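Try it yourself: sequence plus fe (ii) ion, in.
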Amino acid sequence: MSRVFRMEPSPPRHDSMEREAVVGADRVPASGVNGSGIVAGYLAPHPPHLIYAENPPQNEPRSTGGWEVLRWAYDEVRRRVRALQPDVLVVHAPHWITMVGHHVNCVPNPRGISVEPIFPHLFRYHYDFRTDVDLAEALVERCEANGLVSRAMREPGVRVDYATIGALHLVNPAWDLPVVSIGANNNPYFYADAELEQMEVLGRATREAIEATGRRAVLLASNTLSHLHFDRESDLPEDMSQEYPFNNHQYRADMTLLETIRTRPTPALRAAIPEHIAATESETKSGSLTWLLAALDWPDTTGDVLGYGTIIGTGNAVVEWRPKELARHG
Ligand SMILES: [Fe+2]
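Structure, out:
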């Protein structure tokens, strides 16, 4: 069995003098006071194949590689996040599904094995990370203040889902940043209509909590795009000769959305995201992408598409958005 990896990250920096000193060096400024605020947001899809292909020591299965172009996109995300020097990663993921209320993981040190239920032969990942409990609790408070039913999850035995672990590993495999993990308060696989309205409020609550606690935060929306996928797997899962879009309709709908992302300010996505969901069963129906853009306050900027590729036929894009004030640093 693989050893459990654990790193001891530094606590978030609260001291304003220290923060000013860092900002005064090479740190990219943020929109808030003393360098705090949301400094970037990423669409960060989580298919377990990407981690399987990378062969990190935390994951038990071994591979010969695969899905390189998407993994190179994540290499670029890792470089950018490190340059941004955030205090915390905040992730919204679709596979921690709650039927009542918006739940925030407030367990100080989640530890365990995350297993992908459909692909346990690809993903059995030993995780051990630290939660930014102050920010997590502030988020619960801001959710309630904004009228959302919400709950602090404090059960240390609850297994962290693979969509949360996947996005966090792919963006920060060193696990040297604290985390705030948010569940998805809906069931994207049973309800026909996306329930995105509350994601607007959850995004606002997230921004308020980050500003109130003075954090520099990077946000992660752990969503795949077009979501129809093959029901057969080749003998070698990473056989790239068997990797292609599920069909041309799904591919074209993804390209339509990505062209909107690349060429139009984010308010255009308020209409484009539901249209894309209707066309593709996109995993964004769980709300992660709408939450991310709402937290960024729908900036008047385009997104930076860093990569696109299919995984068992699904469409996956890695995209960065910066707050409007920081777009020039992209
Ligand atoms: Fe998923």
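One thing you can check immediately is this: Strands lie at 37-43, 88-97, 102-105, 111-115, 124-128, 150-153, 179-184, 216-221, 304-311, 314-321.
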